[in-house]
Amino acid sequence: MRVYINHFNLDALPNVLTMLDDKLVKTETYIQVYSIDGIYQVNMSSVKKQTVFDSDIDIIHDYHENFTLIVDKSYFTEEDAAGFDPDHISTRMKRCIFETSKGSPIKLIIEGETVEERGGFFKNKTSQNLVPNNIYFEMADNLNVRDALVKKGLIEFLSLLN
């Protein structure tokens, strides 16, 4: 399940990344491909066709201070693919995964396009060359965001983002 922060200012993400350097647990790089026959994710070892299963969203107003959350239980399935249509759009992507404590069931995900540095300056060592465009929490579908322990974990991250 993904939990989004409603109206989060994406322009703030580069600064947020700097504050989260010590909480980074993993990065994944891949190429996102959009073609007439579907969405694909390509990494060093495989090509996966993704199928979206859409679900209703739940909006939780004033979850913590001025944060409103959007709970989205939509998900992707993946299947191996031999290739994709030559007429496509592709983007190099990086996914940064953060935890407030090791093994936490709540992960903060920041995703974005990777670009080559051309005399620019990137403020954080964690995600150099990353132009972030998405931020959300990821957790198991069986967790309830209103549960006290889950809420405590989310608030730890929300406090850093405030």
Keywords:
single chain, 162 residues, mainly beta, ten-stranded antiparallel sheet, globular
How would you characterize this protein structure?
The structure is a single chain. By secondary structure, the chain is mainly beta. It has one domain (2-30, 58-81, 93-161). It has helices at residues 13-19, 148-161, and strands at 2-5, 24-35, 38-42, 47-53, 57-64, 67-72, 75-80, 88-98, 107-114, 130-138. It has a 10-stranded antiparallel beta sheet. The longest helix has 14 residues, at 148-161. It starts with a strand and ends with a helix.
**Beta strand %:** over 45%
N- and C-termini, Cα separation: 23 Å
- The oligomeric state is single chain
Number of contiguous helices? 2
Tell me the count of domains.
1
Structural class: mainly beta
What summary fits the major beta sheet? Answer: 10 strands, antiparallel
Radius of gyration: 17 Å
Low-confidence stretches: none
Order of helices and strands: EHEEEEEEEEEH
Trace the largest sheet across and list its strands.
Answer: 5-6-1-10-9-8-2-3-4-7
DSSP summary, beta strand count: 10
Helical amount: 10-25%
Mean pLDDT: 88
The rough form would be described as: globular
Tell me the layout of helices and strands.
Layout: E1 2-5, H1 13-19, E2 24-35, E3 38-42, E4 47-53, E5 57-64, E6 67-72, E7 75-80, E8 88-98, E9 107-114, E10 130-138, H2 148-161
Antiparallel strand pairs: 1-6, 1-10, 2-3, 2-8, 3-4, 4-7, 5-6, 8-9, 9-10
Overview in brief:
The protein is mostly beta strands and 162 residues long.
